[in-house]
Design a protein that fits this description.
- Helix 4 crosses helix 5 and helix 4 packs across helix 6.
- Helices cover about 65% and strands about 0% of the residues.
- It starts with 13 loop residues before the first helix and ends in a 25-residue tail after the last helix.
- By secondary structure, the protein is mostly helical.
- The protein is elongated.
Protein backbone atom coordinates (compact mmCIF):
# COMPACT_ATOMS: atom_id res chain seq x y z
CA UNK A 1 0.00 0.00 0.00
CA UNK A 2 1.58 3.34 -1.03
CA UNK A 3 2.47 5.74 1.75
CA UNK A 4 0.14 8.74 2.15
CA UNK A 5 1.84 12.01 1.33
CA UNK A 6 1.05 15.25 3.13
CA UNK A 7 1.77 18.77 2.04
CA UNK A 8 3.96 20.36 4.68
CA UNK A 9 3.55 24.01 5.57
CA UNK A 10 6.91 25.75 5.53
CA UNK A 11 7.80 27.20 8.92
CA UNK A 12 8.01 30.98 9.01
CA UNK A 13 8.80 33.51 11.76
CA UNK A 14 5.61 34.53 13.57
CA UNK A 15 5.58 38.09 12.22
CA UNK A 16 6.11 36.89 8.66
CA UNK A 17 3.39 34.26 8.98
CA UNK A 18 0.94 36.81 10.34
CA UNK A 19 1.64 39.13 7.40
CA UNK A 20 1.14 36.23 4.99
CA UNK A 21 -2.25 35.46 6.53
CA UNK A 22 -3.32 39.12 6.52
CA UNK A 23 -2.40 39.53 2.86
CA UNK A 24 -4.35 36.39 1.94
CA UNK A 25 -7.34 37.45 4.07
CA UNK A 26 -7.37 40.88 2.39
CA UNK A 27 -7.65 39.23 -1.01
CA UNK A 28 -10.28 36.73 0.11
CA UNK A 29 -12.49 39.24 1.95
CA UNK A 30 -12.34 41.72 -0.95
CA UNK A 31 -13.35 38.97 -3.34
CA UNK A 32 -16.37 37.48 -1.56
CA UNK A 33 -17.13 39.70 1.45
CA UNK A 34 -17.04 39.04 5.18
CA UNK A 35 -20.10 36.79 5.48
CA UNK A 36 -19.32 34.62 2.45
CA UNK A 37 -15.64 34.10 3.29
CA UNK A 38 -14.84 31.27 5.68
CA UNK A 39 -11.69 30.70 7.66
CA UNK A 40 -11.17 27.61 5.51
CA UNK A 41 -11.18 29.89 2.45
CA UNK A 42 -8.58 32.15 4.02
CA UNK A 43 -6.41 29.23 5.15
CA UNK A 44 -6.47 27.88 1.60
CA UNK A 45 -5.63 31.32 0.18
CA UNK A 46 -2.69 31.59 2.57
CA UNK A 47 -1.58 28.00 2.04
CA UNK A 48 -1.78 27.16 5.75
CA UNK A 49 -3.96 25.01 7.98
CA UNK A 50 -6.82 26.43 10.01
CA UNK A 51 -4.90 25.42 13.14
CA UNK A 52 -2.13 27.86 12.16
CA UNK A 53 -4.77 30.52 11.46
CA UNK A 54 -6.13 30.20 15.01
CA UNK A 55 -2.64 30.59 16.44
CA UNK A 56 -2.69 34.17 15.15
CA UNK A 57 -6.37 35.20 15.22
CA UNK A 58 -9.16 34.28 17.61
CA UNK A 59 -12.01 34.58 15.11
CA UNK A 60 -12.99 35.74 11.66
CA UNK A 61 -14.11 39.06 13.12
CA UNK A 62 -10.73 39.49 14.78
CA UNK A 63 -9.02 38.73 11.46
CA UNK A 64 -11.20 41.16 9.48
CA UNK A 65 -10.45 43.93 11.97
CA UNK A 66 -6.74 43.18 11.70
CA UNK A 67 -7.00 43.39 7.90
CA UNK A 68 -8.60 46.85 8.15
CA UNK A 69 -5.99 47.97 10.68
CA UNK A 70 -3.23 46.71 8.39
CA UNK A 71 -4.42 48.82 5.47
CA UNK A 72 -4.94 51.86 7.71
CA UNK A 73 -1.31 51.44 8.75
CA UNK A 74 -0.25 51.30 5.12
CA UNK A 75 -2.34 54.38 4.41
CA UNK A 76 -0.67 56.32 7.20
CA UNK A 77 2.78 55.57 5.76
CA UNK A 78 1.74 57.11 2.43
CA UNK A 79 -0.43 59.96 3.72
CA UNK A 80 1.46 62.04 6.27
CA UNK A 81 -1.54 64.30 6.86
CA UNK A 82 -5.24 63.59 7.44
CA UNK A 83 -6.74 61.92 4.38
CA UNK A 84 -9.57 64.42 4.14
CA UNK A 85 -7.22 67.34 3.64
CA UNK A 86 -7.04 66.68 -0.10
CA UNK A 87 -3.78 68.49 -0.59
CA UNK A 88 -1.55 67.40 -3.44
CA UNK A 89 0.48 65.18 -1.13
CA UNK A 90 -2.56 63.45 0.37
CA UNK A 91 -3.96 62.50 -3.04
CA UNK A 92 -0.56 61.17 -4.10
CA UNK A 93 -0.51 59.14 -0.90
CA UNK A 94 -3.99 57.75 -1.44
CA UNK A 95 -3.07 56.73 -4.98
CA UNK A 96 0.14 55.08 -3.79
CA UNK A 97 -1.65 53.10 -1.08
CA UNK A 98 -4.35 51.99 -3.52
CA UNK A 99 -1.75 50.89 -6.07
CA UNK A 100 0.23 49.00 -3.41
CA UNK A 101 -2.82 47.21 -1.96
CA UNK A 102 -5.89 47.46 -4.25
CA UNK A 103 -7.86 44.86 -2.29
CA UNK A 104 -7.19 46.67 0.98
CA UNK A 105 -8.33 49.99 -0.51
CA UNK A 106 -11.60 48.44 -1.72
CA UNK A 107 -12.10 46.69 1.59
CA UNK A 108 -11.71 49.82 3.71
CA UNK A 109 -13.54 52.31 1.51
CA UNK A 110 -16.28 50.12 0.03
CA UNK A 111 -16.82 46.69 1.58
CA UNK A 112 -16.52 47.49 5.29
CA UNK A 113 -19.47 49.90 5.16
CA UNK A 114 -21.67 47.07 3.89
CA UNK A 115 -20.74 44.67 6.67
CA UNK A 116 -23.08 45.06 9.69
CA UNK A 117 -20.33 44.30 12.20
CA UNK A 118 -18.06 47.00 10.76
CA UNK A 119 -20.53 49.56 9.36
CA UNK A 120 -20.32 51.84 12.41
CA UNK A 121 -16.54 51.96 12.17
CA UNK A 122 -16.65 52.66 8.43
CA UNK A 123 -19.27 55.39 8.92
CA UNK A 124 -17.17 57.04 11.62
CA UNK A 125 -14.13 56.95 9.34
CA UNK A 126 -16.06 58.67 6.53
CA UNK A 127 -17.46 61.26 8.95
CA UNK A 128 -13.94 62.09 10.12
CA UNK A 129 -12.80 62.50 6.51
CA UNK A 130 -15.75 64.80 5.78
CA UNK A 131 -15.04 66.94 8.86
CA UNK A 132 -11.37 67.28 7.97
CA UNK A 133 -12.27 68.19 4.38
CA UNK A 134 -14.67 70.85 5.66
CA UNK A 135 -11.92 72.51 7.71
CA UNK A 136 -9.96 73.09 4.53
CA UNK A 137 -12.79 73.74 2.06
CA UNK A 138 -14.55 76.37 4.21
CA UNK A 139 -11.58 78.69 3.60
CA UNK A 140 -12.20 78.50 -0.15
CA UNK A 141 -16.00 78.51 -0.24
CA UNK A 142 -17.67 81.62 1.27
CA UNK A 143 -21.13 80.07 1.63
CA UNK A 144 -20.73 77.57 4.45
CA UNK A 145 -23.75 75.56 3.29
CA UNK A 146 -22.00 74.90 -0.02
CA UNK A 147 -18.75 74.30 1.84
CA UNK A 148 -20.41 71.46 3.74
CA UNK A 149 -21.88 70.14 0.49
CA UNK A 150 -18.42 70.09 -1.07
CA UNK A 151 -16.85 68.57 2.05
CA UNK A 152 -19.30 65.68 1.91
CA UNK A 153 -18.94 65.18 -1.83
CA UNK A 154 -15.18 65.68 -2.34
CA UNK A 155 -14.06 62.58 -0.38
CA UNK A 156 -16.60 60.48 -2.26
CA UNK A 157 -15.30 61.79 -5.58
CA UNK A 158 -11.71 61.05 -4.55
CA UNK A 159 -12.46 57.50 -3.42
CA UNK A 160 -14.64 56.68 -6.42
CA UNK A 161 -12.11 58.22 -8.84
CA UNK A 162 -9.30 56.11 -7.41
CA UNK A 163 -11.48 52.99 -7.42
CA UNK A 164 -12.42 53.62 -11.06
CA UNK A 165 -8.72 54.07 -11.82
CA UNK A 166 -8.00 50.66 -10.27
CA UNK A 167 -10.90 49.13 -12.23
CA UNK A 168 -9.45 50.57 -15.44
CA UNK A 169 -6.15 48.83 -14.79
CA UNK A 170 -4.28 51.80 -13.26
CA UNK A 171 -3.48 53.71 -16.47
CA UNK A 172 -0.89 56.53 -16.62
CA UNK A 173 0.19 56.28 -12.96
CA UNK A 174 2.51 59.26 -13.32
CA UNK A 175 -0.34 61.72 -13.89
CA UNK A 176 -3.34 59.83 -12.44
CA UNK A 177 -3.23 61.80 -9.18
CA UNK A 178 -3.46 65.06 -11.15
CA UNK A 179 -6.68 63.84 -12.77
CA UNK A 180 -8.15 62.94 -9.39
CA UNK A 181 -7.21 66.40 -8.11
CA UNK A 182 -8.97 67.95 -11.11
CA UNK A 183 -12.14 66.02 -10.25
CA UNK A 184 -11.99 67.21 -6.64
CA UNK A 185 -11.23 70.76 -7.81
CA UNK A 186 -14.38 70.64 -9.92
CA UNK A 187 -16.47 69.95 -6.81
CA UNK A 188 -14.83 72.76 -4.82
CA UNK A 189 -15.05 75.14 -7.78
CA UNK A 190 -18.76 74.40 -8.24
CA UNK A 191 -19.36 75.12 -4.55
CA UNK A 192 -17.36 78.37 -4.64
CA UNK A 193 -18.93 79.98 -7.68
CA UNK A 194 -22.00 82.19 -7.57
CA UNK A 195 -25.16 81.33 -9.48
CA UNK A 196 -24.21 83.93 -12.08
CA UNK A 197 -20.96 82.08 -12.74
CA UNK A 198 -22.54 78.69 -13.27
CA UNK A 199 -21.95 77.09 -16.64
CA UNK A 200 -25.07 76.81 -18.84
CA UNK A 201 -26.63 73.36 -18.90
CA UNK A 202 -27.42 71.47 -22.12
CA UNK A 203 -31.03 71.84 -23.23
CA UNK A 204 -31.90 68.23 -22.37
CA UNK A 205 -30.77 68.91 -18.76
CA UNK A 206 -33.19 71.80 -18.51
CA UNK A 207 -30.83 74.58 -19.57
CA UNK A 208 -31.56 77.56 -21.83
CA UNK A 209 -35.32 77.15 -21.53
CA UNK A 210 -35.97 80.86 -21.98
CA UNK A 211 -33.95 80.91 -25.18
CA UNK A 212 -36.00 78.08 -26.67
CA UNK A 213 -39.32 79.87 -26.46
CA UNK A 214 -38.71 81.97 -29.57
CA UNK A 215 -40.00 85.42 -30.33
CA UNK A 216 -43.25 86.62 -31.97
CA UNK A 217 -41.71 89.88 -33.21
Amino acid sequence: MPARTQTKVRRLPRVQRREQILAAATTAFARTGFASTSLDDIAAEAGVTKVILYRHFESKTDLYQAVLDRFCGLLSTHVAEPVGGFTGASIDGLMAAAAAEPAGFRLLFHHAAREPEFQAQADQFREEITNIAYLQIQAMVPDQRWARWAAQLAPVVAIEAITAWLDAGGPDPADAADRVRQAIGGVIGAAAQSSADCLPLPADWGGNRDDDRGSDG
